[in-house]
Amino acid sequence: MMMASRGEGVKLASSMMLFSRSFSTAISRGIIAKEAVTAKAVECHGDVVRKNIGEFWVRGSVFGVRHGSTMSFGEKDQQKVEMKQTQSVAEGGDKEEKKEIASYWGVPPSRVTKEDGAEWKWNCFRPWETYSADLSIDLKKHHVPATFLDKMAYWMVKALRFPTDLFFQRRYGCRAMMLETVAAVPGMVGGMLLHCKSLRRFEHSGGWIKTLLDEAENERMHLMTFMEVAKPRWYERALVITVQGVFLNAYFLGYIISPKFAHRMVGYLEEEAIHSYTEFLKELDKGNIENVPAPAIAVDYWRLPPDATLRDVVLVVRADEAHHRDVNHFASDIHYQGRELKEAPAPIGYH
């Protein structure tokens, strides 16, 4: 009796173990199948299909370990796919950046050449905008201040010269750079205000808008030229930003209040520029500053000979400043006579 019951117990235990093993195997196969499908779906991400799917061999009876190893395998494959996609996008972006910008009208830009047939390499100005400076212009001409506004403009410019001399001393390349960043402001401000006035009053400007804007562009080209000669330091760049910001707003306000004062001040400012470039030439002649070859942009802009030097550049820039001096003193005289600029034809010169 005892033996019979013990035999039945052994059979019952064996049946339970067999059922448990079958149940465990079924669950294991189901999980493996599910994980295989998941891995295959991961490998198909981004239209990248892999023919060989890794086999999952997990030793042990713990499902958590099997599940963890399968997920890590899938995550690694997904990371590889994403990395490949990122690299392909980056490579495509680099290729797109190297492509030329298509014309808005769908027509390729015309090829501009020099007189000798060589390709024109400047986009900031064209061959028909170049000129030869008038070196015969009188450099010693000076407007003697007579009125209160004239004297105020004269001494204001003199006061501005003192800190400039103290800061730059004999570094005339950097000094010229600073001077041109300031000298390019008045023409733009005056031209803009006259432009708005012409639109507001429905009237012509007598050519003064073009004259003043050409002056601003000419002064900007001076700056672009000297940028090739003198490399400004970081604190000089900071000084330029500060001075230009202050001078722009001050001159804008001054031109609105009194155009005759504003133009007179620019006339005296150009007289100081002539003096500075004359000192620049003296240092070049003494050998204190190396007379390097003229920058290519200067050779093309002023139509200089191919063997031109820095001295030739300073000569033509000084002639430009003398021209601006005469234009602004003339504009101030027109206002002193109680007339408007449009009543006198603008002295459109060689710019």
Can you tell me about this structure?
It is a multi-pass membrane protein. Homodimer; disulfide-linked. The protein is an all-alpha fold. It has two domains: 2-96; 129-343, Alternative oxidase (Ferritin). The protein is 67% helix and 0% strand. The protein is built from nine helices and no strands. It has helices at residues 2-43, 63-98, 148-168, 172-201, 208-229, 234-257, 259-286, 296-301, 310-336. Helix 4 runs antiparallel to helix 5 and helix 4 (172-201) runs antiparallel to helix 7 (259-286). The longest helix has 42 residues, at 2-43. The N and C termini lie far apart (128 Å). The relative contact order is 0.09. The model is unreliable at 1-6, 16-28 and 30-73 (pLDDT under 50).
Provide the fold topology.
Blueprint: H1 2-43, H2 63-98, H3 148-168, H4 172-201, H5 208-229, H6 234-257, H7 259-286, H8 296-301, H9 310-336
